[in-house]
Amino acid sequence: MLRSLVGSEMCIRDRSTGPRPQTTMSPMLRRAASVLLSHHGPCTMARCATTAVHFKNSPNPHPLGMHKEWKNPTINHVWSADELEAVLAQQPRHVPQKLGDKAIHAAIRGLYRSFNFMTGYKGEDPSPSAVAFRLILLESVAGVPGFVAASHRHFKSLRSLERDHGWIHTLLEEAENERMHLLTFLQLFPASWSTRAIVYSTQYLFGAMFIGMYVLAPQLAHRFVGYFEETAVLTYSQVISKMEEDGTQLNKQWSDVKAPPIAVNYWRLPAGASLLDAIKQIAADEAVHRDVNHTFADMAYQDPNPFVEKHLENVESAYKAWRADSTEAVKILEGTEMQGMSLNQPKTSTTVG
Prior knowledge:
The protein is mostly helical. Helices cover 67% and strands 0% of the residues. The model is unreliable at 1-25, 35-55 and 340-353 (pLDDT under 50).
């Protein structure tokens, strides 16, 4: 929560001209945000920059006159070093047994080869431009199935007046997670007009196809996503390997690239985290989507979601992180008040003592 508040405070301070928007912070949190800025300096903290740029809150007052407080709604899994090593060390593949699975598997293999040709991707030593183009297209497509499936199940639940048994939440989390992957790469690699045109047309074609597939055969649709995610994990594993291998194009050009602010915020990465750190988090996310969709493909439509417990763990982790941020701000505020320092006069130091 404090990240968004600090971001709002930064937006106010950074405007040198024009009327200043109203802030929605309580006096205490506003002062805490001011103190954090006095310690870190405006626009120097990656998380604050992320909030100010990406997560925007309207300066307009609440239409009913109520207090308005915005909180970051993203709750995702943050992978530890041990978890990353365990997840990325293996790449299990689903072996198709049914005729429908075999047809989908063959189609994905064909699409994978075509995608390699279209993006100019060569696994032995891919160029950074080809990889950037590939990842933007990949994530723009990967964010579609989860939202389509969640929307279908949502409306089915309303029509049938029955529970969904937890699937909708997992599917929406998948869609949001894929969108955050896309936004991460867009902060580093701006899309050209041709890339935007391809994304635009692909979304219409693939979206229409997947909607029809999910209406007619939802289990087959989940199998399709499972195979699709297998290729995504393969791509990210290759990218990670080439970034770590000396002498490759990716190692030469991307080894010193820092993770963009939005990735630092989303995966709660440490200050100074690299792009490689962010890509490892993304690869692990894709591995989860692979396993989740293969699992859903083997389940009946009305079976309860077996992944609800994992969501609860992620909520608890996110809550602890938010509390830690708030506690840090309060400690800084209390220390400042004890020292009698004016909140309107920034300190020259940019570190928290």
